[in-house]
């Protein structure tokens, strides 16, 4: 996991970017299932990227953000 942040000296705004990399992971054994419902033993690695922009007013902070920027989704999360 990595996080990059930027905040200028004026403290007017703040920008954050988070990167979380997930490596290969062991999956449940599906070898006893019919061939159409079998899955590999390990998942592929993937990354999740999030960002947030914060704007400072005198007494309030306004922020907006985006999660899962590259829209990673698990293919067929339910086997059958």
How would you describe what is shown here?
The chain is mainly β and 80 residues long. 0% of the residues lie in helices and 40% in strands. It has strands at residues 2-6, 13-22, 46-56, 61-66. Strands 1-2-3-4 form a 4-stranded antiparallel β-sheet, with no helix packed on it. It is elongated.
Question: Layout of helices and strands, plus pairs?
Answer:
Elements (H helix, E strand, L loop, with lengths): L1 E5 L6 E10 L23 E11 L4 E6 L14
Antiparallel strand pairs: 1-2, 2-3, 3-4
Summarize the entry for a quick read.
The protein contains no helices and 4 strands. The chain has strands at 2-6, 13-22, 46-56, 61-66.
- Our count of helices gives 0
Give the quaternary arrangement of the chains. Answer: single chain
Global mean pLDDT = 93
Helix content: under 10%
Q: Characterize the overall form.
A: elongated
> How many strands, what sense, and barrel or not for the largest sheet?
4 strands, antiparallel
The span between the termini is 33 Å
What percentage of the residues does DSSP assign to strands (E)?
Answer: 35-45%
Biggest sheet, spatial arrangement of strands: 1-2-3-4
Please write the string of helix (H) and strand (E) elements. Answer: EEEE
**In total, how many beta strands?**
4
Secondary-structure-based class equals mainly beta
Low-pLDDT segments, ≥5 res = none
Which features does this protein show?
single chain; 80 residues; mainly beta; 4-stranded antiparallel beta sheet; 4 strands; 40% strand; elongated
């Amino acid at each position: 996991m990595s996080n990059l942040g930027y905040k200028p000296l004026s403290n007017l705004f703040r920008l954050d970017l988070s990167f979380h990399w997930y490596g290969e992971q062991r999956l449940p054994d599906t070898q006893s299932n019919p061939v159409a419902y079998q899955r590999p033993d390990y998942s592929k690695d993937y990354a999740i990227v999030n960002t947030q922009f914060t704007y400072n007013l005198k007494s309030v902070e306004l922020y907006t953000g985006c999660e899962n920027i590259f829209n990673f989704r698990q293919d067929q999360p339910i086997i059958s």
